[in-house]
Amino acid sequence: AVINDTRSPSILRKAAFQLPFFLLAGMVEVNSAMAATETLELISPWQVERHAESCALSAAFGNQRNPLVLHFERFEPYHDFQLLMVGKQLKRLVPPTKLSIAYGSTGKVQTTASYRQARNADGTPAILVPVAGLPHDGESTQAVAAGEAAVDHLTLTIGQKRQVIVNTGSLGEPFAAFTTCTDQLVSSWGYEPGHKQSLSRRLSPLSNPSSWLRPADYPGAALFSRAQGMVNFRLDVDAAGTPLRCKVQRSFGDEFDSTTCSRLMERARFRPALNAAGQPVASYYVNRAYFLIP
User: Fold this and answer.
1) How many H-runs (helices) and E-runs (strands) does the chain carry?
2) Radius of gyration in angstroms for the set of CA atoms belonging to the chain, rounded to a whole number
3) Low-confidence winner among 7-16, 73-82, 128-137 (lowest mean pLDDT)
4) CA-to-CA distance for 258 and 217, rounded, in angstroms?
5) Using CB atoms within 10 A of its CB, is residue 170 exposed (0-12), middle (13-18) or buried (19+)?
6) What one-character-per-residue DSSP string does 22-48 give?
7) 190-192-198-203 Cα dihedral, nearest 10 degrees
8) What count of other Cβ atoms lies within 10 Å of the Cβ of residue 156?
């Protein structure tokens, strides 16, 4: 079942949504004393939530006392998502090693070299995968839906010794609700559903987005405390290619929000989007900024 409601089931509230999350330095490695394989079953309904700037799809697995929560989040209508995994099952993970995720039985494995350790406000361990996606053959709506329906479990491989199998059930229905949510999300921003797909040319940055934030922009207090973070943001851009406003979609480290938006509004400029008739039109740009200390 999929619940479309602003209220999360209590098990999801307890396990996953006591924001903020704090990013930690380093990657993860499993303690060799842990069991080689663990299988977790679905113990809650799938929950879809629409926020002002994102849509989230979540469910809990394992047991009521110590659930593992999968929290998928999208910031616009697109196949990819951000994945946050939260649970005490992750507490023995220490830096550093490789994390791989296999979606279903397709044999296609995503090795996530850029994932981060995190912790919830109450100390619950978490792993954040900034960019992930389900396998599908082709870009058509039918091909993507078929790929989602074919996935009924996730296999997490941490290092070479440990596997966690998460039996999700078919993701067809939950991800269909997820997609409906992101279509509604774009409408709430004032754009038509399928806005980007209708363009003959999408927004393109006039400079490398990596130049919009510079080492000198790192907030002093955060640098002193060695705090790290990530900010998902959206820019509304006018028909001339100039940002009109900046919205923080998800923040892992509130101290970085104002720095991100102020610098982007100052430095980001775009080649304008064109509608089907070739006329410049307003559009939006979504990306993420990382604040990391080597």
Assistant:
1) 5, 20
2) 20
3) 7-16
4) 11
5) middle
6) EE-SS--B--TTS-SEEEEEB-S-EEE
7) 20
8) 21
**CB within 8 A of 82, min separation 6: which ones?**
72, 73, 74, 75, 128, 129, 130, 131, 132, 232, 250
Record the pTM. 0.85
DSSP code, position 19: P
Strand partners, 41: 167
Q: Give the per-residue pLDDT at 185.
A: 96
Where would I find the H helices in 155-256?
172-188, 220-225
pLDDT digits (tens, 9 = 90+) for 222-238: 899 888 889 999 999 99
Say what angle helices 141-150 and 172-188 make with each other, to 10 degrees. 130
Using DSSP bridges, classify how beta strands 243-252 and 229-237 pair: parallel, antiparallel or unpaired: antiparallel
3-class DSSP assignment, residue 287: strand
Please provide the size of the chain in residues: 294
Give the separation between CA 55 and CA 203, rounded to whole angstroms: 22
CB atoms closer than 10 angstroms to residue 33: 6
The answer to whether residues 258 and 229 touch, using CB atoms and an 8 Å cutoff, is no
Q: Which helix (H) or strand (E) covers residue 265, if one does?
A: helix 257-267
Q: Is the peptide bond before 77 cis (omega within 30 degrees of 0)?
A: no
Q: What is the mean pLDDT of the chain?
A: 84
